[in-house]
Amino acid sequence: MASSHRAIFFTILLLLAVAAAATASSAGGSPLSPYYYSKICPNALPAIRRVVEAAVSRERRMGASLLRLHFHDCFVQGCDGSILLDATPTIDSEKTALPNNNSARGFEVIDMIKSEVDKACGGKPVVSCADILAVAARDSVVALGGPSWEVQLGRRDSTSASRTTANNDIPTPFMDLPALKSSFQKQGLNERDLVALSGGHTIGFSQCQFFRNRIFNETAATIDAEFARERRASCFAGSGDANLGSLDGSPARFDGSYFKNLVEKKGLLHSDQALFAGGSTDSVVKGYGSNNGRSFWFDFASSMVKMGNIKPLTGNRGQIRVNCRKVNA
Ligand code: HEM
Ligand SMILES: *[C@@H]1O[C@H](CO)[C@@H](O)[C@H](O)[C@H]1NC(C)=O
Ligand SMILES: *[C@@H]1O[C@H](CO)[C@@H](O)[C@H](O)[C@H]1NC(C)=O
């Protein structure tokens, strides 16, 4: 009796393990592969890395800007390079959507990468702009001292863009936890992905207009008073909309200080602090803020792969753009 129960128990365990493995392989089992270009253009990835490294050494912030471009690409129609398309009578450019207008940057670096990567591939456009964004995001994080990961490749480029979707689906800095969670859930990303990926704010800057209300109006219950006072020295009540504040204390270093800041109520954006404000994500934030960000690094890398898998165009859908700003003629 006991042994037959045990047999059933282990059979169930085995079935669960098989199911889990199948789920994992279908999640990672998008048609993308890290080796997609190893035969058709083995020099593609080194070419991308060279341009990213040069751009980041010219201006450290560019690493942050390139990471953000991939995020804003993936949340709108999937990771399909749609954010790169300029406006035309038939292209509803995402560049002027609220979260991007006078905010998203790095488009010239992407153009430079595209031109170098085409040269490295024998003068032919074989690497998609969507893949360039994914690789540039990884190389940027590495250039600023963060973790590395194998980038899944083989995405193709969209022939359309959607300003409306960009306005609706890219989360805003004024959101509370439930809205942030549902924004990420809509993309197939869970609460842990939300926290890990928000750690992207360990690098880069925000304009005053996105955190003004927080530093002037929020109370000591949610913001450290000294931190708010310091930030008011360069972000004023009635002016300085575009003045920059660093998202954490070391905006050119990919470290764990973003999460330590949150535990001290020193998140810059309302949406940052929402991850540590007495809700269900508090414990994850605390964990990432301890042990020098090691567990954060690991989870960030795996959530970046997951984000990069959002609705890629593969097979004969989409195209490989000749110019990342334009649909092919
Ligand atoms: C969770 C929801 C998120 C919200 C509400 C949000 C919001 C913002 C805002 C308002 C800015 C400042 C933009 C400006 O001042 O022009 C910003 C910057 C940035 N965001 Fe996010 N973000 C979120 C998630 C992410 C994710 C998932 C990543 C990447 C994994 C990311 C990476 C960045 C980076 C690197 C910057 C700095 C860019 C630069 O300095 O050019 N953010 N974000
Ligand atoms: C985008 O910003 C420019 C200023 O650079 C402004 O003139 C334009 O109206 C903005 N577009 C939208 C759609 O908000
Ligand atoms: C503070 O909040 C009030 C009421 O919502 C708003 O009118 C005011 O503009 C806010 N102040 C700043 C500096 O954002």
UniProtKB/TrEMBL annotation:
<feature type="binding site">
    <location>
        <position position="248"/>
    </location>
    <ligand>
        <name>Ca(2+) 2</name>
    </ligand>
</feature>
<feature type="disulfide bond">
    <location>
        <begin position="41"/>
        <end position="121"/>
    </location>
</feature>
<dbReference type="InterPro" id="IPR000823">
    <property type="entry name" value="Peroxidase_pln"/>
</dbReference>
<feature type="binding site" description="axial binding residue">
    <location>
        <position position="201"/>
    </location>
    <ligand>
        <name>heme b</name>
    </ligand>
</feature>
<comment type="similarity">
    <text>Belongs to the peroxidase family. Classical plant (class III) peroxidase subfamily.</text>
</comment>
<dbReference type="InterPro" id="IPR002016">
    <property type="entry name" value="Haem_peroxidase"/>
</dbReference>
<feature type="signal peptide">
    <location>
        <begin position="1"/>
        <end position="21"/>
    </location>
</feature>
<keyword id="KW-0325">Glycoprotein</keyword>
<keyword id="KW-0560">Oxidoreductase</keyword>
<feature type="binding site">
    <location>
        <position position="82"/>
    </location>
    <ligand>
        <name>Ca(2+) 1</name>
    </ligand>
</feature>
<dbReference type="InterPro" id="IPR033905">
    <property type="entry name" value="Secretory_peroxidase"/>
</dbReference>
<keyword id="KW-0479">Metal-binding</keyword>
<feature type="binding site">
    <location>
        <position position="202"/>
    </location>
    <ligand>
        <name>Ca(2+) 2</name>
    </ligand>
</feature>
<keyword id="KW-0964">Secreted</keyword>
<feature type="binding site">
    <location>
        <position position="76"/>
    </location>
    <ligand>
        <name>Ca(2+) 1</name>
    </ligand>
</feature>
<feature type="disulfide bond">
    <location>
        <begin position="208"/>
        <end position="235"/>
    </location>
</feature>
<feature type="domain" description="Plant heme peroxidase family profile">
    <location>
        <begin position="31"/>
        <end position="328"/>
    </location>
</feature>
<feature type="disulfide bond">
    <location>
        <begin position="74"/>
        <end position="79"/>
    </location>
</feature>
<feature type="binding site">
    <location>
        <position position="73"/>
    </location>
    <ligand>
        <name>Ca(2+) 1</name>
    </ligand>
</feature>
<dbReference type="GO" id="GO:0020037">
    <property type="term" value="F:heme binding"/>
</dbReference>
<feature type="site" description="Transition state stabilizer">
    <location>
        <position position="68"/>
    </location>
</feature>
<dbReference type="GO" id="GO:0005576">
    <property type="term" value="C:extracellular region"/>
</dbReference>
<feature type="binding site">
    <location>
        <position position="255"/>
    </location>
    <ligand>
        <name>Ca(2+) 2</name>
    </ligand>
</feature>
<keyword id="KW-0575">Peroxidase</keyword>
<feature type="binding site">
    <location>
        <position position="78"/>
    </location>
    <ligand>
        <name>Ca(2+) 1</name>
    </ligand>
</feature>
<comment type="similarity">
    <text>Belongs to the peroxidase family. Ascorbate peroxidase subfamily.</text>
</comment>
<keyword id="KW-0732">Signal</keyword>
<keyword id="KW-0376">Hydrogen peroxide</keyword>
<keyword id="KW-0106">Calcium</keyword>
<keyword id="KW-1015">Disulfide bond</keyword>
<keyword id="KW-0408">Iron</keyword>
<protein>
    <recommendedName>
        <fullName>Peroxidase</fullName>
        <ecNumber>1.11.1.7</ecNumber>
    </recommendedName>
</protein>
<dbReference type="GO" id="GO:0042744">
    <property type="term" value="P:hydrogen peroxide catabolic process"/>
</dbReference>
<feature type="binding site">
    <location>
        <position position="80"/>
    </location>
    <ligand>
        <name>Ca(2+) 1</name>
    </ligand>
</feature>
<dbReference type="InterPro" id="IPR019793">
    <property type="entry name" value="Peroxidases_heam-ligand_BS"/>
</dbReference>
<dbReference type="GO" id="GO:0046872">
    <property type="term" value="F:metal ion binding"/>
</dbReference>
<comment type="function">
    <text>Removal of H(2)O(2), oxidation of toxic reductants, biosynthesis and degradation of lignin, suberization, auxin catabolism, response to environmental stresses such as wounding, pathogen attack and oxidative stress. These functions might be dependent on each isozyme/isoform in each plant tissue.</text>
</comment>
<dbReference type="InterPro" id="IPR019794">
    <property type="entry name" value="Peroxidases_AS"/>
</dbReference>
<feature type="disulfide bond">
    <location>
        <begin position="129"/>
        <end position="324"/>
    </location>
</feature>
<feature type="binding site">
    <location>
        <position position="171"/>
    </location>
    <ligand>
        <name>substrate</name>
    </ligand>
</feature>
<dbReference type="GO" id="GO:0140825">
    <property type="term" value="F:lactoperoxidase activity"/>
</dbReference>
<feature type="binding site">
    <location>
        <position position="94"/>
    </location>
    <ligand>
        <name>Ca(2+) 1</name>
    </ligand>
</feature>
